[in-house]
Specification:
Blueprint lengths: L2 H30 L4 H37 L1
Length: about 70
């Protein structure tokens, strides 16, 4: 993978993971606060990695393609 492609993919992942982690912690942070760190980390990653791979990043790519098509028409 070229450097530019890696940078773009990194930005896409960040655009999904940052709000996802924020929402997850907002919704479940108090419930998880009593657990040890390793358990919190496990729950967070076991939930968000599939979200990222199967929903979050594909949804972002779909939205970016639609925006790109719109800008090409104008």
């Amino acid at each position: 993978m070229k450097t530019k492609a890696k940078l773009i993919m990194s930005l896409k992942i960040w655009m999904v993971i940052y709000p996802s982690i924020t929402a997850f912690l907002f919704l479940f942070g108090q419930l998880l606060a009593e657990l040890p760190l390793y358990q919190r980390t496990f729950i967070l990653t076991i939930s968000l990695v599939p979200w990222m791979m199967y929903v979050g990043v594909p949804a972002l790519e779909f939205m970016l393609r639609r925006l790109s098509r719109r800008s090409e028409k104008n």
